[in-house]
Specification:
The protein is an alpha/beta fold. The protein is built from 12 helices and 15 strands. The strands form 3 sheets. It has a 7-stranded mixed sheet with strand order 3-2-1-4-13-14-15, with no helix packed on it. Strands 8-9-10-11-12 form a 5-stranded parallel sheet. The radius of gyration is 21 Å and the shape is globular.
């Protein structure tokens, strides 16, 4: 399909915007023009045109990691719910995600084929976890409620030989990126966020196995020692980074390691904990993590760490992803830096900067159009009602007409 989009195209470097026509053909941007004739035009005059946003940390298959869901719900219901999660994410203006665990290769294939309303995705399939770690779903009773099926292997492994075997198994299952739990977490009952999990040598084995396939490693790490171990092992990105200090942030900046701070889950989980809406074993951790997270993210920002947008949606509800942008501005980023964290720099973190992240000739036509001035009113992007059009691969998935 060949058509053009007309509106105020935002320059993510200067913040300026000018009336332009973006000509789209076969899913890609053919050109950007001041005037155009002879094609159908999506007229979004006086509205603002941006690249589709990129969320680098979601669990598109999940709705809160609820114990009762794993115990009671049929497996098919799990997939049907995920369809709504994907739709909400796409319609919120997120055209690409990096799934941090549980989306399998079939889900990605359905997205690529446009069989469903979904962002495009990189998948990690199953996070690697130590026994008793943050993705070990054995409960305190000893019951294992881990959801596995053909194509979604278990990620539990201990010791270098097992770690290598499990990394290879997850790569065989179609992982685009390997995810590793280097510390405990808020939502698990058998550990705490500061607990260190995996040794440096084990983490380095994962990095090496990923490198053999040209893949990268993303690491869940709240605790300081887990962050330090991850940097020593050579990981590509650190997720959460809650207890980072200035010295470690400086090292992270020098190494060019990305930090995905996931403000959204930290803030919303804290509110839920205060209202008694989280399981009892998670409440204290959720409040404590929120207490230190913002100050330490300010330190990381001051040290020049490469921060990019990720929300951990799936732990919290889907479709509110762009609220993360406002949180990024609260710790020192100006609105343009936050917008780039969710577009240009996020694409670089994924290794897809040649295809997405900016609206340039030859790139994939991932476009959102909003009523809100994204530079002056960045907080308004967090309301999906302010996202008027969503275009992914040149396909219009959302418009004011429905």
């Amino acid at each position: 399909m060949r058509f053009a989009v007309k509106g105020e195209l935002v320059d993510l470097e200067s913040g300026d915007h000018e009336r332009r026509y973006i000509l789209i053909d076969k899913g890609k941007i053919e050109s950007i023009e001041r005037h155009i004739t002879g094609v159908d035009v999506v007229d979004a005059s006086d509205r603002f045109i941006l690249p589709g946003f990129i969320d680098l940390h979601v669990h598109i298959m999940e709705d809160g990691f609820r114990v009762e869901s794993k115990l009671e719900d049929p497996l098919s219901l799990y997939f049907y719910r995920a369809l709504e999660n994907m739709r909400k994410t796409l319609h919120a203006g997120v055209t690409t995600v990096r799934d941090a665990g549980l989306a399998d290769m079939g889900v990605r294939m359905a997205s690529e084929a446009h069989m469903i309303h979904s962002p495009r995705m990189q998948i990690s399939v199953t996070p690697l976890s130590v026994t008793g770690g943050h993705f070990d779903f054995h409960t305190r009773s000893g019951l294992n409620i881990e959801r596995t099926y053909p194509g979604l292997p278990s990620g539990i492994c201990d010791g270098i030989p097992e770690v290598r075997r499990k990394a290879r198994e997850v790569l065989r299952a179609g992982a685009d990126v390997l995810k590793v739990m280097a510390t405990g977490g808020v939502m698990s009952s058998t550990d705490s966020p500061s607990d260190t999990q995996f040794t440096v040598k084990e983490l380095a084995a994962v990095v090496e196995e990923a490198s053999f396939r040209g893949k990268r490693v993303m690491v869940h790490a709240h605790g300081l020692q887990g962050i330090r171990n991850s940097l020593r092992a050579g990981v590509h990105s650190v997720e959460h980074g809650t207890y980072i200090d200035g010295r470690t942030a400086s090292e992270m900046s020098e190494r060019g390691v990305y930090l995905v701070p996931t403000f959204l889950v930290t803030r919303l989980n804290c509110k839920k904990a205060m209202r008694g809406e989280l399981p009892e074993y998670s409440r204290k951790d959720a409040i404590e993590v929120a207490r230190v997270h913002r100050d330490n993210m300010e330190i990381a920002c001051e040290e020049g760490v490469r921060m990019v947008m990720g929300t951990d949606s799936g732990v919290i509800e889907h479709g509110r992803n762009l609220m993360e942008l406002s949180y990024l501005t609260e710790i020192g980023m100006d609105p343009l830096e936050a917008l780039r964290a969710g577009t240009v720099h996020a694409a670089e973190c994924m290794g897809w900067e040649d295809s997405i992240g900016t609206l340039d000739r030859g790139k994939i036509a991932d476009i959102i159009i909003t009523d809100a001035d994204p530079v002056e009113e960045i907080e308004k992007l967090s309301d999906p009602e302010n996202i008027q059009w969503v275009i992914r691969d040149g396909v219009i998935y959302r418009s004011p007409d429905g």
